[in-house]
Each structure stands twice: as C-alpha cells, then as structure tokens.
Amino acid sequence: MRRDLPGLTLAELTSELDSRQRALELLKWLGSLSALPKELPATVPGVSHRVWKTFRERHGVTQVQVKERSLSADGTTKYALDLEGATVETVRIPAKGRSTICISSQAGCTRKCVFCATKELGFTRQLKAEEMVAQYLTARFEAPPDAPARNVVFMGMGEPMDNLDEVLRAVEVLTQGPFPQLRAQSVTVSTSGVLPGMVRFLAESKASLALSLNATTDEVRAQVMPQNKTWPISALLGALHDAAKVNPDRDTFVEYVLFKDLNDTDADADRLVAMLRGLPARVNVIPYNPYPGTGLETPTEARVLAFHDRVVRQGQLCLVRWPRGREIAAACGQLVLAQDAQGFVPAPL
Ligand code: SAH
Q: Which of 123, 190, 260, 324 to mutate to test the pocket of ligand 1 (most atoms within 8 A of CB)?
C-alpha cells in the first residue's frame, strides 16, 4: 500500500530519507504548517534536494476536503470531511487550556449498537492511518491558541478494533516526536468490546483504552450491543484484569451510556462498582443522546446525578459526560444525524 504523509512513522521516514536528522526536519516542517498542503512542496528545509525528489516520487499527501463545519454554542466544532470519496466526521471539543479531537477510524461501522446512529450509514470503507492523523491535523490547525489540541479520542465513527493495524499506526504517528508528540495517555482508543482486538491493543500500545460497557448484565448488554453474545462482559473484564496485572499504572476508561429504566437503577450502580473492583478503571457516565426510532430514552438529570452519586460514594472514580455540541448532532452516537439527506433530523435539545 502506498503511504502518504502524514501516515509514515519516524522509522520509515528515517529509512526513506536515509537520515534520522532529515526525518526529524520533515516532521518539524509538518508541525510548522497551518493547513495540510494539496501536494508535497518542491523543497523542505533541512532535506536535501536529491533525497526529497525521490521521496516525492513515492509519496503524496492525504487529500482532505472540509465539506462542512458546524459550530455549537459551547465552541464544539464538527467537521464533515471528504477523504477521497469517503465522508467522515471529526469533532473538536475545546476545554480550559486544551482541546480534544474526536476522530473516526472507519467510514461507517459494521457493529450494530442499537443506540448509535453511525450504523445507519452502513460501512463505506476502512480508513488508512494517514486519514486518521489528517483528521487530527485538520481540526488541530483551527484550535484556539489558548486551547491547543493535546488529546485525541477514537470515539467518532467506526470500531477501532475492526481496523486495528491502521489505528495502531495512527497512534504511533500521533505520539512520535518532534511532532505531533502527544502523550500516549492523552490518546484514547474506544472499543465496543471486540475482545481479540482489545487484547492485542492492550499488549501492543501504550495509549489509553476506553471500553464501552453500557450495561451490568449480559442480558441488557446484548439487547443494546448484539455482539455481547460473542464477547460477554466477564470476558471483557477478564482481559482488563489480565492487562492490569502486567501494567497496574495504566488507567482504563469505562464508558457507560445511561438509558432510562434499562441500566440506570441503583442495582445497576451497585453491580457496576462491584464488577470494576480491583481494576484501575475510571467510569464515564454518558446520558444517552436520543436518536429517533430506538425506543430508548434519556434518564432525567436527577436520575443521572443519583446514579453518579451512588457510584462515587462506593469509592469508584466516575464522571458524568454531559453532552457537548448536541444541537449540531456532534455528541456521541449522533454523528450522522445532521445528514438530512439520510432522512434524519437532529435530536431536540
Ligand atoms: N465503536 C467505538 C467508538 C465509537 S462510539 C465504541 O463503541 O466505543 C464512542 C462512544 O459513544 C461509546 O462509548 C458509545 O457507547 C457512545 N455512544 C454511542 N452512541 C451514543 C448515544 N446515542 N448516546 C450517548 N453515547 C453514545
């Protein structure tokens, strides 16, 4: 497969440019840009003409077209990007002092999570590592100077473990110096619980893992995430326990989308705490972002707070992730909703 910038690792650049110094200069040049160029320039500072000419014959630059930018009142920006015919969505979420970029790992998804709007798109194709890194760069270039893009979450469209080779390469490129040099802990790969991929990821990557647990019994989980029949909760948590034995310092995020009357009871809160005991896990409770036709509902704010409170009181780290950018359908699981052509309407505020 032909690799374009920005999908090459430092080791590959070193070998292609026949010098580590030139590879570092090239990455520095990439870091000095304010937009991805349409093609590689004729010269790059610090890289000799002869070597660069050969490199340009072999590699190009990933083509990204911003088709649409939607800005939410809270500063969240959703990008619809065209990657050579595949449309993906990338979200930039500003916070105090830093921004988080949420990127897609596939154009569409083959998993059938009942609550997630992405499945309505079907599956277009796998994304290449450079297309994941290019999403980050595109959003990064527009981050406000007081909130630089230091975090990346693979929580856009797609199941990262179903495209793991490319995801691992993207993580390596995002974390390599001198640019973008993100901290491995600041890059989080989120999975619906594809066990073989999860095990491999935990063994091979230093980046953070988020497991979308979303239920405390196999019966309820299988109702909303059909693949639970293949990889049940005990197997997923078993893999986290095994990984914690090898590396006890690595935190895992456990995502828990809260659905009214389905997984939001006191008994669920207690089971959640019990099943995570002994794991270095931080729970993120996400109130369900409604998506028409699922039959699922969002709990009241009081119920969300009561659930959170009950979990925290038992000593389990837990945060509520209130939706950001809901009016532009940029919140979790809503990334296709704004595409009116598909017949959906954005969920009400
Ligand atoms: N496939 C991966 C990454 C994409 S989903 C995964 O499942 O983890 C990213 C997060 O959004 C997951 O935790 C998922 O459970 C959550 N999510 C999906 N649809 C949602 C919705 N409608 N409301 C709230 N959270 C949702």
A: 190
Torsion angles phi and psi, residue 308, rounded to 5? -60, -45
Cβ-defined contacts of 302-310 (< 8 Å, 24+) = 303/258, 303/260, 303/264, 304/258, 304/264, 306/266, 307/258, 307/264, 307/266, 307/268, 307/269, 310/266, 310/269, 310/270
As for how many domains the chain has, the answer is 2
How far apart are alpha carbons 37 and 162 in whole angstroms? 30
- Which regions of 218-316 does DSSP assign to beta strands (E)? 252-258, 281-287
The angle subtended at Cα 199 by Cα 197 and Cα 202, nearest 5°, is 105
Give yes or no for residue 286 CB within 6 A of ligand 1: yes
Catalytic residue annotation: 89, 332
pTM of the model: 0.94
Provide the domain limits for residue 34. Answer: 10-58
Residues 298 and 245 in one domain: yes
User: Residue 258's domain is classified under what CATH number?
Assistant: 3.20.20.70
For residues 51 and 132, membership in a common domain is answered with no
Q: What is the pLDDT of residues 158-216, one digit of tens each?
A: 999 999 999 999 999 999 999 999 999 999 999 999 999 999 999 999 999 999 999 99
